[in-house]
Amino acid sequence: MTGLKRVVGQLGMVCLLVWSLAVHAVEWPQQIAADEGTIVVYQPQPEKLAGNLLTGRAAMSLELKNQDEPVFGAFWFSAKLDVNASTGKAIVRDMKVTQVTWPDSTDANESRFTQVVEAALPQAGFVIDTAALSASLKGAELERKSLSNLKNDAPAILFRDHLAVLLMYDGEPRFSDVDNSDYQRALNTPFAVARKKNSQAYYLSSGQFWYSASDPLGPWTLTGNPPADLQKMMPAQEADEQAANGQPPEIVTVTQPSELVVTDGKPEWKSLPGGDLLYVVNTETPWLRDVAGGSMYVLLSGRWFKAAKQDGPWSFVRADELPDSFAQIPPDSDIGGVRTSVAGTPEADDAVTDAYIPETAAIKRSEATLEVTYDGAPEFKSIPGTQVAYAVNTGAQVLKIDNHYYAVDNGVWFESDAAKGPWAVADSIPDDKIQQIPPSSPVYNTTYVHVYESTPEVVYVGYTPGYMWSFPYYGVPVYGTGWYYPPYWGNYYYPRPPTWGFHVGYNPWTGWNFGVSWSNGFFSFGASWNAGWHGPYRPWGCCNGWYGGGYHRPPVVINTGNINIGNSVNIGNRAVINNRIGKNPQLVNRNKSVYHRPENRARNAKPAVARNQLKMARPAPQRANNVFADRNGNVARRVDDNWQVRDKGQWSANHPAASERLSSPEVKQRASDFKQSHPDYQRPDIDRQQINNYRNNRSPSNFDRSGLNRDFQSRQRGMQRSMPRGGGFHGGGGGRFQR
């Protein structure tokens, strides 16, 4: 027993070490060696992000070998980003210095100092947390894409007050023979549905429960005596103790886009602090009621729908047009996680900014291969309003443009002179024509995959979350385009990406997760069964998920009894995080990058090595990350609530924060006098002229306080997001559902 304890203890120490390395936030400032000393670079302040090209500015100090005091300056730059969501880190490389200012130096030294910086920085690489990078982009210029053609019609929203599962068919049920058996299986559902040939006996299984019906649309009834030969055909399934001991769910069958909202008994409404909002405790679906307006709201695939009553009709509500009470939901409440879907909240701003950061990779030409299989001769369909056609009778995403062929596979563009190949990694693509593809097309997500640059050995590529069907929309992320894409039927069945039916919810750590209400393993089991049986089923080829929806096939055993309705609809993932990963957000991210999934890693080159041998910067010890550069080239540092500006080798006297300036006796008296002489003025609490005079009299005269305040807040937000969190997801626990 002592030996076992020793082994367990050693394993625990190893796990703790791995955890500490993985979650350790990147430290700023960072330093690099130069010919005349050390250059200390403070956290960059981005001004623009276009693809993988980042431009911005940063404060710095040059610590000369023969001088005690550092020389502070600011520089503007452009640089390339290599982003890996699986680690939560990005490398800033190929930095080009475009401008330098030195508030500390004399004219005679400026040229020499600038040469030192311009020579050293392009050879260096800097590491930054993607969360910190995202937060710092809040005030930057981003490539925004019009999403006016997203479809926001409500799906059929169904309610049950007892355990139930949504059995979804993609249209009317269709069956195909299972090789070497007397059975057929349903092709157009992720569930395990089979029938005996030449009979009306249908069976459905989750691995623990069996159901039977005389019609594939039900009604389905529990059976304890399924055919023995059918049971033997089922793949091995881990036992779900809670499912086995619990009540079997009702099977709710649909053939059109639908969502199922399930409660444990009648809905139990609970008031949030302030009493303006109520929410249902005993459900996995965010379901709220605005007390003042009387309408109820549900959150599905990142979209809000409202109705006067449960039976509907339900209508779409933009996230920036919700009642004001939604923005007042406490972050640490049971439903704090829904703030990500409320425009204007910090959580929503974070999620939207994340959507503009590309996931990148350097792809080795020699290792990246593609084979495309068609159901017969390649068949292409023109996309209205474009010069693009797409292949309909394949699970791959193949485009035809100007009699040339392009295909996207796991975030990489390939090209060929023929529809069947051979395929090679593309150096470039006709992006202007590809960008014409509208959301109504099932290949719309390819417009979010890009080719950045190439060498004879490597092609640099990237994608933004739109490739994974996640879009920033009126201040929040939404999932799916809302369009229904009919599948292809021939000798094979190719489903297309859906928006509805999978109970999709957003989590700031894992992105979009999906479940099938309290599924008892139905989905994961059905998917594995379909994948294991031979036959004409061919899943959509996009992103290694059933239907190719851009989400990963999860360890979906959602029947854990732990409901967190605000933070994740996929309670199965939440349970895994709490029990196995604990406070390690980096391990949660392990499958977020398409490029770094196990099956894709062999084709990846190391970007820094493939590009050049970067001299990686390292943390600069005993220096606070509180120095900034404003847009005018001034260098300032934040001390408590005050700004100190660097001028002629010294930090200036404190400049109080805006709140302190406005509360000063001088400003208050001026505002009072102004109010008496201008009784019709609508904002008598602020004397604009007094504030302008105050700003104009400070030194340096062009100090951009408002811009630096924003950058400071963004840096603080980034530090918060980069730190590990305890207790599962941000937002606290949800209700407890026991069966």
From TrEMBL:
Organism from which the protein derives: Gilvimarinus xylanilyticus
Regions of compositional bias (Basic and acidic residues) in chain numbering: 667-688
Residues spanning the membrane: none
Comp. bias (Gly residues): 725-739
Keywords from the UniProt entry: Signal
Domain of life: Bacteria
Protein name from the UniProt record: Carbohydrate-binding family V/XII
Region (Disordered): 645-739
